[in-house]
Amino acid sequence: MGSGASKKIKGKDKQDQAVAAQPAGRSALGAFIERQDDLILQQKRLLRQMEAQRADVASFLHQNSTLPSTLGRSGNATEAQSCHVCSSLRKHIDALEGELKQGITNKISEGGHVFVMHGNIKDIVCDAWLLPTTTDLRVDGWNREGEELWVPPDAPNDWGTGLDSQTANKRRVMRWSGFHGHESGTPYLVLCSLTGDVLSKCNVQLSWYIAGVELFLQAVAQDLRIEDGSAKGWHYSPNFGRAKPLLLVPVIGTGDGGFQEKIGHVLARLMLLCHELANTLDVDISIVTRDKKKFDALQTVRALGTDTSWHALPLHLQERASTLVRETSEGNVALFLGAGVSASGGLPLWRQLLEGLAKRAGMSPAELAGLAQMDPMDAASVVEKRFIASKGDLREHVALLLQVTAKVTSSHVLLSAMPVTEIITTNYDTMPEQAAEAVRCRMGVLPFEHVGASDKFILKMHGCVKHKDSIVLTRQDYIRYNDTRAALTGIVQALLLTRKIVFLGFSLTDDNFHRIVDSIRKSRGAAGSKFGVQVCLKSSRLQRHLWEEEMHIISMADEDCGSIAPAARQFEIFLDYLVAKSIACTSFFMDERYLGMLQPEHAAETAETRLLHALRTFVEQVPISGMLQGLPEVQRTMTLLGDTTLHSRLDNSQVCDLQPRASEAQTRGAGGHGGGGHVFVVKTDIACLECDGWLLPMSNLARKEETEQKCRKWVEANPRFFQPNSSFACPPPLLSSRIPPWGLTGTESEEGEGGGGGSSSSVRWEVDESLPSPFLTISHLLSEHSAKSADATNSPPLATNRTEQLVEVESVLTSFVNAALAYLRGRKAVVE
After folding, report:
1. What 3 state SS string does 238-306 have?
2. How confident is the model at residue 119 (pLDDT cuts 50, 70, 90)?
3. What's the Cα-to-Cα distance from 67 to each of 85, 111, 321, rounded to whole Å?
4. In this structure, are residues 346 and 405 in contact, taking their beta carbons and an 8 Å threshold?
5. Cα separation of 191 and 6, whole Å?
6. Which helix (H) or strand (E) holds 46?
7. What is the pLDDT of residues 51-81, one digit of tens each?
8. Which of 273, 688, 743, 790 is such that its CA lies 20 to 30 A from the CA of 122?
9. Counting Cβ atoms within 10 Å, is residue 179 exposed (0-12), middle (13-18) or buried (19+)?
10. For residues 448 and 445, what is the distance between their CA atoms, to the nearest angstrom?
11. Given this model, what pLDDT does residue 774 score?
12. How far apart are CA 232 and CA 336, in angstroms?
């Protein structure tokens, strides 16, 4: 590293306090991007003004095209010349519009985008990725069990940390040119992992780690870019035709690097640097982590910044994505993946697959040309016959062609983070499963596995390369599909009826899919709502017309766009936007190591930190002794917020059973001897159940008129009791003398009409012979004083302690049950 680089690192140390005082994600570059966005908005307003002016000019010329010949010309000549002028003006304004739109597009396309991905960095297709290493170039922790060990080159003489005078001029970045997996991403060895002895000797600042990331990004850009004054481009095309190179960066310094307790500070600085260099170097950067807390925290850091994080995604696509965010976050979305999602990983589309198979079968160029003119299913049948003639296996060669890479695409990594549990695909590859496995997500594969214990499932409609006999490719396979895979068709039909299906990379031309959709049309009828959304790179006007009644279409580019590479990049950014806006990023919130991203040092307390402190106080004061019914739910909520304190307290406490235990009475009733009844708990309107009688609670002071008025209001609120041609059945009188045994005593019970205090507090109300009868039951007591002043004083019932309340409840239920049983016994005796 040169002296300039050394000064840069020292300068970075001085910037720590300045950066800490700024909100996460804000920088001078952020203000510059905001100005760019303002400029784009001004241009768009100008465009709208031009459109309005064009309409005014066209209207004026149209009106003047019919002027009389008093101007010295004939009407026909005037009209012809006016039309000519109008046409010329229209062409001129259209040209201006085109230039302006192209300028807006160029503005949007300038600079790169910063992705946040939840996955394994070494499994993602990219152009280059940062591989942290030590002073002696060890990468032991990156070797995968069962694979060839990674053996990096020897350390060059100018390799060093730059932390002391002896290594001040050493370099920290080296391209691993001999890496065997470079075809889908070249690793750059970056010295940003320090052993314990170096950490103990040197006071390593966070700026040292951030500088390592900056050196990596600049080195890659220098290796890729050509700038000779007249030409600007790349030494080679980014992997698989991508519009901009994609560079991957891990979260450095938070493992054994000394900043395990300040992860929030690291993420804030890392995001800030990546935003700056993505725009300065004109590359796409992805920060990748397998840790869910870090992933959620990175999404939050990006959200705490300005909306310029999404300047690479046009506003109209942001608006279209927002319509899907609500459905996705509520769990109402299922995904349907086509071949286009896997194409960015180097896998062939259907026609390309058939061509590759035909070449493997030894077909001549003339035969290949004829094959291209055939229907794909018939072409596959011809290729299969050729393989059979040579004793080959078509499906085995399909598996070989689709296993060209062990990597996964950015799209698959982004999709694996979406809150979606149901996926359908016509693809044969295993990229979705690989992306899920990298983050320890259990993905079941139908129809080959039982998916009961899985976190999500994927339905392979046309088979899988791991089960080559299941691959659907030829005409015969499609004809016999319903005979052999009717169960899979049923699952797809059910999802189309119950979910909003988002089609990604799927062309909507598959014959099996059309048959399934037609069955949905028959069941839904003509008035059915749209069942899905197609997100595609570009769509034709005729295709939109074909599907406009059944699904929404979101296109990344216009029909007449040239290269689809920019549209493919927009597609990835669109998915990144969907993920960022639809997931709940809470798993880090109560982890103190992330506090630095919510409240920078020397900054005022924020609303987030006040909420955090309140939750910590709550967790510390939660009682855990005894049997608390709500404690498991509180523990789950706190765990979702990243808290481990409550979990540790529970582990160390004597609470061993948080589930309610059955009472002695319940145990006796469930003894299996057939005696006693059963107590059901049902959530519904009590008057809607089929039963022999039900309790309608009343007050002890309800006189006849008051009882009738109350019951009439209740009946009006329950239309079930309204009969079109029958009169309202008046309730029976419920006098205050009907005082229950547990109620008022002494003089109060003798003041009621009829005196003496009734022995029953329930009376049956015959509403309708065809309906279950309610039993008016005194369930709460009021004194005369409390009844008169209830509205003013909000007086409580007479029973004020728990013991009295339990006695009341038991007496009310006993009175109701006795009255109901007496009525039922009497009715049985009459019948007999």
Report:
1. CHHHCCCCEEEEECCCCCCCCCCCCHHHHHHHHHHHHHHHHHHHCCEEEEEECCHHHHHHHHHHHHHCC
2. very high
3. 15, 53, 50
4. yes
5. 15
6. helix 28-64
7. 566 555 555 555 554 444 433 444 455 555 5
8. 273
9. middle
10. 6
11. 77
12. 39
> Comparing C-alpha atoms, which of 472, 343, 359, 473 is closest to residue 410?
343
pLDDT confidence band for 731 (50 / 70 / 90): low
pLDDT one-digit tens code per residue, 794-828: 444 444 555 666 667 777 788 888 888 888 887 76
Three-class SS string for 171-240?
ECEEECCCCCCHHHCEEEEEECCCCHHHHHHCCCCHHHHHHHHHHHHHHHHHHHEEECCCCEEECCCCHH
Coil, helix or strand at residue 572: helix
Inform me whether the pLDDT recorded for 46 exceeds 80: no
pLDDT for 295: 95
Residue carrying the six token digits 């009175």: 815
Dist CA 207 CA 273 (whole Å): 11
Please name which of 293, 187, 815, 231 lies closest in space to residue 590, comparing C-alpha atoms: 293
Q: What is the pLDDT of residues 537-590, one digit of tens each?
A: 888 888 888 888 888 999 988 777 777 888 999 999 999 999 999 998 888 888
Contacts for 731 with CB less than 8 Å, ≥ 6 apart: 707, 708, 711, 765, 776
Cα–Cα distance between 538 and 250 in angstroms, integer? 33
HEC readout, 341-359: HHHCCCCCCHHHHHHHHHH
DSSP letters spanning 638-678: HHHTT--HHHHHHHHSS----SPPPPHHHHHHTSSSS-S--
Residues 379/363, Cβ–Cβ less than 8 Å: no
* Phi, psi (deg, nearest 5) at residue 129: -145, 150
pLDDT digits 0-9 by tens, 129-158: 999 888 888 877 776 665 666 777 888 888
160-169, 336-345, 539-548, 557-566, range with the lowest pLDDT = 160-169
How far apart CA 541 and CA 523 sit, in angstroms, is: 28
What confidence score (pLDDT) does residue 785 get?
Answer: 47
Other Cβ atoms less than 10 A from the Cβ of 316: the count is 9
Prior bond to 376 cis, omega within 30? no
Residue 422 φ/ψ, nearest 5 degrees: -130, 120
How do strand 333-337 and strand 500-504 relate by DSSP bridges?
A: parallel
d(CA 438, CA 431): 11
pTM, two decimals, is: 0.73
- What is the three-state SS of 358-371? HHHCCCCHHHHHHH
Q: How far is CA 460 from the centre of its chain?
A: 22
The token duo for 114 is 């910063």
Spatial distance between the Cα atoms of 529 and 76, rounded to a whole number of angstroms: 52
CA dihedral over 668, 672, 675, 679, signed as positive or negative: positive
Residue 485, token pair as written in the block: 């895979």
From residue 766, alpha-carbon distances to 670, 695, 770 in Å are: 35, 13, 10
Longest alpha-carbon distance in the chain:
116
Q: From the DSSP assignment, how many helices (H) and strands (E) are in the chain? A: 31, 18
Comparing C-alpha atoms, which of 265, 341, 332, 330 is closest to residue 301? 265
pLDDT in tens, 623-645: 766 556 677 788 888 888 888 77
Among residues 509, 454, 513, the alpha carbon closest in space to that of 489 is found at: 513
Query: Which H or E element spans position 632?
Result: helix 631-640
Q: How many residues does the chain have?
A: 832
Q: What band does 655 get if pLDDT is binned at 50, 70 and 90?
A: very low
Residues 6+ apart with CB under 8 A from 716: none
CA distances (Å), 196 to each of 118, 134, 193, in order?
29, 11, 10
- State phi, psi for 460 to the nearest 5 degrees: -90, 95
